[in-house]
From TrEMBL:
GO molecular-function terms, A-Z: lytic endotransglycosylase activity
Any Pfam family matching the protein: YceG
GO CC, one annotated term: plasma membrane
EC number: 4.2.2.29
Organism: Ichthyobacterium seriolicida
Membrane topology: Single-pass membrane protein
UniProt-annotated location(s): Cell membrane
Record-annotated membrane-spanning stretches: 7-26
The protein, known as: Endolytic murein transglycosylase
UniProt site positions, description: Important for catalytic activity: 209
HAMAP family assigned: MltG
């Protein structure tokens, strides 16, 4: 009888040991997964989120209660690898060991467009991100205005946590802007008598005038020459922007009546640079201004022989010839 009792006790002990080992250290994640746990999630909601990847849901729950994770839920984006034990999984979740998301943005025109792009990679809504850009305290703290804040985002690749708040995300972009404007770029800006804001403003015009990176430095040189000579920039993209700002209309072709629009962004009416960029400016455009080609061109016109590029001129007479050639080509279309 005692022999049978001892054997039974050993069996029970082994079962308990096996269960405890499996409960704590046995693999319970069935496949690689990335789980998103929103802010203010409850423990049952977490269980529902990761349940599709659990071999044994009950053991995960028991381990969570044992480690007090049910009272310590953290939001975030977490990578769970196949074969992770309950304890390993809880270690990741309870300590907020997130896997960052990679944000890539370029070819965005406005802060509104950017907010939409960013919201697709993080938990925050586009509306909240947009509001954070124009938050009065943020603008005041960093000496920005509702017009100049568009100069802050530098299109690039960034890593952030999925649950980053809107205000922290915007401040991160501000810090990245300061990193971008390193000593070398600041010196180049000073050499052409422009501030970083003015460089970004001119770069936005260059960017709108040409999408060809191999032409941007030439175009930048044209505008810098005009600024030095006290000539109006006379850039059609600034008029298009001014019309959009004032009337809310998108125009495809600039007419004579548009050239007279009363706006500080209208470079046909105003000398110098507009008060701020007319779009979010790409790095290639900023660097094109900082490294503008030195030449004597002060005019440019669409080149019908190389669509997408421009014909440049040093004199009004030469420019008028280029302009006439373009008009003849357009009439023939």
């Amino acid at each position: 009888m005692k022999k049978h009792t001892c054997i039974s006790a050993v069996i029970v002990f082994n079962v308990i040991v096996y269960f405890c080992f499996t409960f704590a250290f046995g693999g319970n994640i069935t496949k690689d997964a990335v789980v998103l746990i929103p802010n203010n999630s409850t423990f049952p909601e977490v269980v529902n989120t990761i349940s599709p990847y659990l071999k044994n849901e009950m053991s995960f729950k028991l381990a969570s209660y044992a480690k007090d994770y049910h009272n310590n839920v953290k939001s975030g984006r977490f990578s769970l690898k196949k074969g992770l034990s309950n304890l390993e999984t809880i270690e990741i979740l309870s300590k907020g060991k997130q896997t960052p998301v990679r944000i890539i943005f370029n070819n965005v025109e406005t802060i509104k467009d950017l907010s939409i792009v960013l919201s697709k990679s993080v938990e925050e809504s586009a509306e909240n991100i947009f509001k954070a850009f124009y938050d009065e305290e943020f603008l005041k703290k960093y000496n920005l205005t509702k017009e100049t804040v568009i100069s802050i985002p530098i299109p690039n690749t960034y890593e952030v946590f999925w649950n980053v708040s809107a205000d922290r995300l915007v401040k991160r972009l501000y810090r990245e802007n300061k990193i971008f404007w390193n000593e070398s770029r600041l010196k180049k800006a000073k050499d052409i008598n422009l501030t970083p804001l003015q460089v970004s403003t001119l770069a936005s015009i260059v960017q709108k005038e040409t999408s060809n990176n191999d032409e941007k430095r030439i175009v930048a040189g044209v505008f810098l020459n005009r600024l030095k000579k006290g000539l109006r920039l006379e850039s059609c993209p600034t008029v298009i922007f001014a019309v959009k700002q004032k009337d809310g209309k998108d125009i495809r072709r600039v007419l004579y009546k548009h050239l007279k629009i009363d706006s500080p962004f209208n470079t046909y009416e105003n000398k110098g640079l507009p008060p701020s960029p007319i779009c979010i400016t790409e790095i290639s455009s900023i660097d094109a201004v900082l490294n503008a080609e030195k030449h004597d061109y002060i005019y440019m016109c669409v080149d019908p022989n190389r669509l997408g590029y421009h014909a440049f001129a040093k004199s009004l007479r030469e420019h008028n010839k280029n302009k006439s050639r373009f008009i003849r080509w357009r009439k023939g279309q």
